[in-house]
Amino acid sequence: MRNICVVGTGYVGLVTGACLSELGHRVICVDNDKKKIALLERNVMPIYEPGLVDIVKKNKKRKLLSFSSNLKEGVKNAEVIFIAVGTPPRADGSADLSYVEAVAREIALSMDGYRLIVDKSTVPVETGNWVELTIQRNLKKDIPFDVASNPEFLREGSAVHDTFHPDRIVIGVKSKRAEQLLKEVYAPLKAPVLVTDIKSAEIIKHASNSFLATKISFINAVANICERAGADVNKVAEGMGMDKRIGRSFLNAGIGFGGFCFPKDLEAFMWIAKKLGYEFNLLKEVKAINEDQKNLIVKKIEDALWIVKDKTIGILGLAFKPDTDDMRFAPSIDIIHALKEQGAKIKAYDPAAMEKAKGIIKGISYAKNPYEAVRGADCMVIITEWDEFKNLDLVKIKKLLKHPIIIDGRNLFNPDTMEKMNFIYKGMGK
Ligand code: NAD
Question: What is the pTM of this model?
Answer without folding.
Answer: 0.92
